[in-house]
Every structure is written in structure tokens, then in C-alpha cells.
Amino acid sequence: MILIETIEKLKEVLFRIKSNGKTIGLVPTMGALHEGHISLIKKAKSENQVVVLSIFVNPVQFDKPNDLERYPRDLEKDLLLVESFTDIVFAPSVKEIYPTEPTEKYNFDELENIMEGVSRPGHFNGVAIIVKRLFDYVQPNRAYFGEKDFQQLAIIRKLVEQTKDDVTIVACPIVREPNGLAMSSRNQLLSFAKRNIASKVYGIINKSKALGTPNVKKISEFVLTEVKKFELVKLDYFTIINDATLQPVESLEDAKGVVACVAFSVGDVRLIDMIRFK
Ligand code: PAF
Fold first, then answer.
1. Residue nearest to atom 6 of ligand 1 (CA)
2. Enclosing H/E stretch for 163
3. Ligand 1 cavity residues, CB under 6 Å
4. Structure confidence by residue, pLDDT tens digits, 90-103
């Protein structure tokens, strides 16, 4: 495994690799790696000859300075975790990626006027800026993203459609802790007890699915009522949407490709999750 910190070095190394006709899989991350990231890297490794893992806490996708400041970071630990199955780790500084303030503006229309796009203004523009820049530096054959960030995945697919980058976006399933909580770097900010409370939301949504009713209003009411029983948990949104358009579904009857997305806070830690209904 080699650690690269500059764009120039990255391009130089990748030029040699590509000249040898090798395929490249990119796994973009913000570090604080967990089993979810490992599954992305392993999937990338199984489908490409060379895997590039990027580790960069992207300041322009954070809408709150305090959230950026306390985002978990431990590069040494991350490197130890992945060294046996990753070829290149690209871990640049903020100055390297943004020597000047980025000015790119993306528009994802109805894909961003909902859920995270509403709760975290500017977030997806920031994600698009870094993902597009990474695609430009690496020019991967495939790029790997987790389904937990379901809206982000849709936005990145849209970005590729708009920019016509020749990269295949590969979606990878959520990896969960034994109690059901979706793996997330932000889980590190929670105590063991709070992680357990956070996992209850997944349990509630599974129960709401098991109600077996096609009535989305009833399902949502059930989730709202059940979540309220946990004082520490504050629901931001629970919404049942079409998996392609991300637009709300009114009834599960006859609907195809339906997922439920949820965002909630446990204390001051905000988490998201996604569960497929149909
Ligand atoms: O999902 C993430 O970790 C980030 O949003 C990404 C895609 C690495 C961009 O910073």
C-alpha cells in the first residue's frame, strides 16, 4: 500500500498503472473507517486490479462548523486497518484540494430539494465538488458508495449523468452493528448506551414495515409515535420514497422500488439510515 498526499504524485502513479492497462476502483471516504468502508474496499478489490481509497474530511460539505470540527479523524488507525487489501491511499490536506475557495455550482433539482438537501443546505453541492474533483484526479473505472447515504448515491449518479464522466457507480449494501445500527463514522461520537438507543430506530422502522399496511400515513404515524418513546432521540424526517425519483410515495399498493429514509439525532449526534420496503 502506498500513501499519497498530493494530486501531482497521485496522477503520476496512476498514469503508470493505467499505461499497463489496469482497471481502477475508487472508494471515496472521509476516514474514521469501519466495516461498511471495508466492505466497499473489498468489493472494489474484487472488481478492479487497483484500488484507490481516498480519505479526506471535505470541509465544503459541512453546513455546521462544529460538526466539521468534531468529525472523527484517525489516519494512522485507518491506514493500519486497510493496509493489507488497499493499493493506494490518497489522503490530501485541505490546502491541496482547495488552494482557493471552490466556486463550482451544481444543480440536482428535485433530487436535492428534499431530506438531507433541506436539513443541510449546501451539503450536496459540497459532496459534488469533491466527488467530481476525485473523479478528475483518479479517472476510475468504477467508484463505490454505500447505500446508507441513499440520497447522496442518487445525486452522484445524476452528477455522472451531467458531467458524462466514464465511471460506473457501484452501490453497496449497508453494514450494520449486531444491534442493527447502520455503521457510520459518526457512531464513534456516541457512547455504548447511546448507540444502543440509536439502534432502536432501525427496530421501529422494521416493525413499521411488518405492519403490512400499504398506508404510508399509518406507517409514518407509527414510526413517529414509537420514536417519541425514546426521549434522547429526535426525529428529523422519516419518509417513504421511490428509489429512483426520490419522490414521496403515497401508498405501497402497486408501488415498485420503495425505500424508507430516516434522519434523527441521539443527543447531539445526527444519523441517517435507509431500509428497503419493496
Ligand atoms: O459519504 C462520504 O463519506 C462523503 O460524503 C464522500 C462521498 C466521501 C464525499 O466527501
1. 29
2. helix 150-163
3. 28-30, 58, 61, 127, 130-131, 149, 152
4. 999 999 999 999 99
